């Protein structure tokens, strides 16, 4: 049980560390790999026309 | 450090403050003006945007933005002004505040604010108030999240944030996150659902979330506490709880079991109107999930049994072993990289004598100093600092008691009212009493981005800045660990400035300069980031966001920040304060022949945040007029068809609105949108129509309508009736009549 807990906790810490790498403004090599991993797992988010407003 | 230069860089990241969620967006500027606000370029954040956020340029560049300080020249509320300089305004405000304090004492100053809107206060309001000697701070968070934080602390010492994305079961008590309201929560739920999570919705209406839920329990409005008892009954009697956790980390289990036995499923079914078998099935689904969470909900915040219902949700989390685990409800604690507002507020400075004067703390102490300081030594033991002002909601005066004191001068006079980023007149119950209180002030100061009905009642109105015009780091007020950068993209117009600047400048005029050494927001951000070893410039050049890696089950090392060190199923704090230490269900006011409907108010619409944005065309076009929701059977009985104008009346007041007939409504219930007024009626109707359609006129705050422990009104299910109007109300614009 404790191992399962440890594994679950470690996974979340790893995911947070990966996420933090994607939040860098000047990404290094590992950061760019993290961004690539993120893009491959989430994919591109298409533009949502509901967000558009007419100019006024 | 000098104020940062604005930039036209297309990669400027700003935290949107149009609502309270705080999505990070990208600002595009042109010729020193905000051109547009667009979605994030990080795919993990790109869906966290709604059409309010993308309307930011329409708001920030709006022709009606306040840009110069105004001084009242007509009668109070007459809406007549002269422009004066910022320096003159601040000098006069300080002078007049000194006079009030000299005559009535420091507690005669009250402050009402909404930190969601103002963002960059950095608790300088509390620091100023504590230096002056007044405990009378009120906020909309007393009705929404802040009060929940305070009550959660009584059970297990902190206010957890639900780890929705990783959860296997999500329970929504009336909460209805959707694409354009609470958008990140909506996205988290969708992500969890895609990973197989079950969703249970408990809502009188067939809400957007209920439509796609695994189980929907259409409970009667205002009965959340009873429903929780039903779940506990099943979970305890079927032994679905985490026995090891209960044995090691809780106190009061046997007493709780006795109380739970007072609520057999048949009784709960009768109270809530939900089939007993469905209650049992949903309880089993929640309790047996590998991980489960009950995210915060604004619905449970606003009921006559709110304290008990919030505690019961905490108890459910604990008994099922779902606290501080992945996919459960997680305790953040103070961010190790950022000095919390709890510290900047300097709550130690306010004397015990002045704290004891906090309005409402005698009758309803739950979120006041009186109750929360009983947790201080335990908070310090576990979290390293005694004051945890989570979501700004843990050391507040009671709003109703404050407005009563403003109106009646009992138990003592409140004669100076400062209101910042908060349309107070429409934001608390019993709007008539609020107006009476405001009309009885010697000094009212408003700090706003637009003229509002509340600001119209002020002596001075100072123009506020907006999020694209200032630097900031958002930290979720210690609800959730993470730091999000918000960069200044453009300069504020004319003399618009931040609430940080306001409190700084007032403090210097009132003799508190030594307590306010930071000259600029950037100085403050450097100070707050000092534990990280970085300045704001360094931090924001390196990251646009940073999330502290989570640590789970911290209680195994520290215990809980409660007097017993355990999860208090039976609350020692509430017991010591003279309340029932165990949760209970209390029935709200009953419907009658005269008032046959259950009215629920405080409901947010996608196009607006609370009372804001009605003057923003691109948003108002999406929601031109206020609309009550009714069930077809109720509408037919009343002879009402879609888009009829009606009056909704309660014993306290009435609102005028249109009706939308919806199959999704529960019969016998009427849903009222929050915060309606008519900026276009300024100069024609009193206070721009603030008393025509505002739900705050409906809500009573007499004792029989208040939660005992917090003094929270029963917004979710009080009696009302509908009267059909034969003619549309006079003075409405064509857009309102047509829309």
Automatic annotation (TrEMBL), chain B:
Residue ranges of domain 4Fe-4S Mo/W bis-MGD-type in the record: 9-70
Stated family: Belongs to the prokaryotic molybdopterin-containing oxidoreductase family.
Metal-binding is among the record's keywords: yes
InterPro entries assigned: Asp_de-COase-like_dom_sf (IPR009010), MoPterin_dinucl-bd_dom (IPR006657), Mopterin_OxRdtase (IPR006656), Mopterin_OxRdtase_4Fe-4S_dom (IPR006963), Prok_Mopterin_Oxidored (IPR050612)
Domain of life (superkingdom): Bacteria
GO function terms (MF aspect): iron-sulfur cluster binding; metal ion binding; molybdopterin cofactor binding; oxidoreductase activity
Organism: marine gamma proteobacterium HTCC2143
Protein name: Molybdopterin oxidoreductase
Keyword Iron-sulfur: yes
Lineage: Bacteria, Pseudomonadati, Pseudomonadota, Gammaproteobacteria, Cellvibrionales
Keywords from the named record: Iron, Iron-sulfur, Metal-binding
